[in-house]
Amino acid sequence: MAVFFLVSLLASAAGAICGIGGGVIIKPVLDLFHMGSAAAISFLSGCTVLSMSCYSVGRAMLGGERQVSVDTGTPLALGAAAGGLLGSRLFTLVKGMSENPDAVGAVQAACLAAVTAGTLLYSLCRGRITTHRVENKPVCVVIGLALGCLSSFLGIGGGPINLMVLSFFFSMDTKTAAANSLYIILFSQLANLTATAVTGSVPAFRPAALAVMVAGGIGGGAAGRWMNRRMDSRMVDRLFILLMAVIIAISIWNCVRYGAGGR
């Protein structure tokens, strides 16, 4: 249980600082330590991310913080909720395409490595990339739909791609993007986990693991919020880039391991 708690605590703290939700760290790390099936880890990661995002967004709203852009953030979040349902269905379809339970884990790891590598490249070249300020609400919904679908399928909550999209399409700085990313994650994960429960597709998992991970998610969210307020955007950017490099390496290893039958 100690591994579940520490991973969720540290990942959620980093996720709250950078706005990546924590699931993008929890999922590959638990895969790395063979802490359960791909489906069970995705479910536990999603529950942890939901608890952390609920705490972070709730505290921000109660505290009167105004970093979340309601005009764009709400259409994005609603699109992400629909995308979360779509991503959950996509996960079920991919899982059913092979009798090998490790196959979906290999697909998830490969997709996560590719997405994270693209995000890292964007982050390194961001100063030379022209960004935009999308205000059209239907377009915001479509962007949110894509984000929610991808994050739900990968079991990562929101992950680094949220920050890249918010920066490119909405010209948000790192800290503003982090706040809006958590808002989007809250909706997509709530929709994803609700669909999982309603359809009766909750995988077998250890209840004790869920309890300690949710506790770690809330504790990490609190710690991450405290640290985020004391860090400038440059420090957040550096932490983000370091995390992306580590996640890429772990995801590639997990992809190879799952592809070899989980050995």
Textual characterization of the structure:
By secondary structure, the chain is an all-alpha fold. The chain has helices at 2-18, 23-32, 38-62, 70-96, 103-125, 137-154, 160-170, 174-198, 207-228, 233-259. Helix 3 packs across helix 9 (207-228) and helix 4 runs parallel beside helix 6 (137-154). The chain is globular, with a radius of gyration of 17 Å. It starts with a helix and ends with a helix.
What is the 3D form? globular
Please tally the β strands and state the result.
0
Through-space gap between termini = 23 Å
The largest β sheet comes out as:
none
Average pLDDT reading: 84
Task: Indicate the structural class.
Answer: mainly alpha
- The number of helical runs is 10
The low-confidence runs, each spanning 5 or more residues with pLDDT under 50, are none
Helical proportion, percent range = over 70%
What is the ordering of alpha helices and beta strands? HHHHHHHHHH
How much is the radius of gyration in Å? 17 Å
- Could you tell me the strand content as a percent range? under 5%
Keyword list:
globular; 10 helices; mainly alpha; 263 residues
How do the strands and helices of this protein lay out in sequence?
Elements: H1 2-18, H2 23-32, H3 38-62, H4 70-96, H5 103-125, H6 137-154, H7 160-170, H8 174-198, H9 207-228, H10 233-259
Helix pairs in contact: 1-2, 1-9, 2-3, 2-10, 3-8, 3-9, 4-6, 4-8, 5-7, 5-10, 6-8, 7-8
Task: Summarize the model shown.
With 263 residues, the protein is mainly α. It has helices at 2-18, 23-32, 38-62, 70-96, 103-125, 137-154, 160-170, 174-198, 207-228, 233-259.
